[in-house]
């Protein structure tokens, strides 16, 4: 039976130790004290039966004083060593948990900075799901391996001494135990390798199952589920995904069950040798006290070996996911970008040069050879029907996606040259999908919990028309949003959420403002208010306004019409060729049929 590792276990463990050396060296001291005390602790239970039986076997000559000394000494020693062992472990484990939490922070920083295209790619999470889960638990993944590395040397040291002790009695007992160890470890590896081969299927099943789980608990779906009687549909789909997920685990358990028969055979061989040889030696004159001591030692060794096997299996098996985690953290998913800093001060000019783009894993181009220049300080509206590519244009100019062909320039500098975080800092964007977080109003606007400019928060709230509403709360801008965390949290209407998102963009005060359908949930009066104050809201910055209605773009300097992934026409707000009340569908037809294409 060969043990084949598909990953470098040694370097993986070394990396974990290197992290301990950097973060908390005191764990090594706890480890040393724990190993010594935990290694000695089991021997008291091995020696106690022999001492008691030897004393009791004296019959009338047995001394009560000696028996009391043995019992009291046993309880004192086990209490002292047990206390030290438990005390040290209880102080070391929170520090180990802290190591995992630091890894979670690193992973979160990684995930929120990888190229946005991966966030829309389900296969990305299926391939890396188990690696990401390496930080999710106290018992598995990184922390599980740390705990086992902390505990295992003490178990191994005690087991080694007991094996020498038993081996001196009879080598065949020891060989039987070793055979059982090897077979059990081989079964564990075979089972793990089979489970690991299913990791993408398991991640996919887990993701699908969790979707329906979240749907049943998400407040946002409550109205639709009731009004459209979606309960049975959701529950039936949830049941189907659970059954599929359970079936995958059943395959793994069936594999483990079949291999378990081999482990049972070796266990019977080991037990047969142990009891057979001990009974034979006792019949030939070995004292009962020695029989009791060796039997206790062998049973203790069996427990230790079982623990040792489990610990080593966890280290090896979970180490694979730890290694995957390190690979994930080391891979470049475009989170860094270039090395250029953000352009500070002033405003921005954006230029698309022969840009073509298609989404990953698709063949259809959204844009083909697109040329566009947005001047500094220009107020530009981009209009088009749903699906024309308006939001995709935003994702490209903000660096969320890279152009498939061509290049995008910011003030003449290729967008790929900018560090990703620096690049994002130059844009304030209000997307179609508004994400309100279960934080305070101030934290939702400032996107931080530290050094919030409270006066500025109220200023932008006033500018978007939410000032009076927020002042009406007892806690003001410290009012919690949503009821997920705080049952007294407030729920804004759709239009108010959009205003809050606009306030968030204004608070950031970036060099370029993009409003992607920012008024779709506003009533006509609120929409008109946003339009009238648009120039005041964005000041002298370059601003881009995305819409599907020509009539909602008259406050801009220029209006571009997107059709079929191309800029089919340009209008100037003060020279619109059609009444503003005409919808975009009629405009698009007239543009395409009556106006020749204008090169931007």
Task: Describe this structure as you would to a colleague.
The structure is a single chain. The protein is 59% helix and 10% strand. It has 600 residues and is of the alpha/beta class. The protein has a six-stranded mixed β-sheet, sandwiched between helices. Strands 2-1-4-5 form a four-stranded antiparallel β-sheet, covered by helices on one side. The chain starts with 8 loop residues before the first helix and ends in a 6-residue tail after the last helix.
Summarize the structure in short.
With 600 residues, the protein is α/β, with parallel strands linked by helices. The chain is built from 19 helices and 10 strands. The strands form 2 sheets. A 6-stranded mixed β-sheet has the order 6-7-8-3-9-10, with helices on both faces. Strands 2-1-4-5 form a 4-stranded antiparallel β-sheet, covered by helices on one side.
């Amino acid at each position: 039976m060969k043990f084949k590792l598909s990953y470098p276990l040694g370097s993986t463990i070394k990396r974990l130790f290197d992290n301990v050396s950097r973060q908390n060296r005191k764990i090594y001291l706890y480890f040393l004290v724990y190993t010594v005390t935990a290694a000695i602790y089991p021997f008291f239970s091995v020696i106690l039966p022999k001492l008691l039986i030897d004393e009791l076997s004296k019959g009338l000559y047995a001394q009560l004083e000696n028996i009391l000394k043995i019992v009291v000494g046993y309880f004192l020693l086990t209490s002292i060593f047990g206390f030290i062992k438990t005390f040290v472990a209880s102080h070391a484990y929170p520090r180990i948990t802290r190591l995992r939490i630091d890894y979670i922070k690193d992973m979160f920083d990684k995930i929120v900075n990888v190229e946005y295209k991966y966030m829309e790619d389900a296969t990305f999470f299926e391939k890396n799901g188990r690696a990401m889960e390496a930080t999710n638990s106290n018992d598995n993944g990184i922390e599980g391996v740390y705990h086992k590395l902390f505990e295992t040397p003490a178990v191994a040291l005690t087991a080694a001494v007991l094996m020498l002790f038993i081996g001196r009695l009879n080598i065949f007992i020891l060989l039987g135990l070793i055979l059982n160890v090897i077979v059990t470890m081989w079964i564990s590896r075979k089972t793990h390798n089979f489970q690991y081969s299913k990791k993408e299927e398991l991640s996919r099943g887990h993701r699908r199952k969790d979707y329906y789980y979240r749907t049943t608990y998400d407040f946002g779906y409550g109205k639709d589920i009731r009004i459209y009687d979606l309960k049975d549909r959701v529950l039936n789909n949830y049941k189907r995904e659970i059954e599929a997920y359970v079936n995958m685990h059943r395959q793994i358990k069936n594999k483990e069950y079949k291999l378990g028969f081999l482990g049972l055979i070796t266990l019977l061989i080991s037990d047969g040798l142990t009891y057979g040889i001990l009974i034979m030696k006792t019949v030939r004159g070995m004292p009962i006290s020695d029989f009791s001591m060796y039997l206790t030692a062998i049973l203790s060794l069996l427990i230790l070996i079982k623990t040792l096997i489990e610990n080593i299996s966890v280290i090896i098996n979970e180490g694979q996911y730890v290694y995957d985690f390190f690979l994930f953290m080391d891979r470049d998913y475009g989170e860094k970008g270039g090395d250029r800093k953000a352009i500070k001060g002033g405003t921005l000019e954006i230029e698309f040069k022969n840009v073509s783009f298609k989404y990953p894993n698709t063949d259809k181009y959204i844009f083909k050879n697109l040329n566009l220049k947005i001047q500094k300080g220009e107020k530009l509206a981009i209009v088009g029907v749903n699906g024309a590519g308006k939001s995709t244009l935003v994702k490209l100019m903000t660096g969320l996606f890279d152009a498939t062909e061509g290049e995008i320039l910011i003030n003449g500098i290729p967008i790929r040259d900018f560090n990703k975080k620096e690049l994002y800092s130059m844009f304030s964007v209000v997307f179609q999908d508004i994400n309100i977080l279960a934080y305070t109003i101030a934290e939702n606007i400032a996107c931080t919990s530290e050094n919030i400019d409270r006066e500025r928060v109220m200023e932008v709230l006033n500018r978007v028309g939410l000032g009076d509403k927020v002042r009406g709360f007892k806690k003001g801008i410290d009012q919690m949003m949503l009821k997920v965390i705080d049952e007294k949290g407030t729920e804004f209407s759709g239009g108010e959420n959009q205003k809050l998102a606009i306030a968030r963009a204004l608070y950031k005060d970036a060099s370029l403002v993009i409003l992607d359908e920012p008024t779709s949930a506003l009533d006509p009066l609120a929409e008109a208010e946003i339009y009238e104050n648009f120039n005041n809201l964005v000041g002298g910055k370059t601003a881009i306004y995305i819409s599907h209605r020509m009539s909602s773009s008259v406050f801009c300097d220029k209006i571009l019409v997107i059709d079929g992934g191309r800029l089919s026409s340009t209008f100037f707000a003060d020279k619109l060729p059609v009444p503003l009340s005409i919808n975009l569908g009629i405009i698009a037809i007239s543009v395409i049929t009556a106006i020749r294409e204008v090169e931007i």
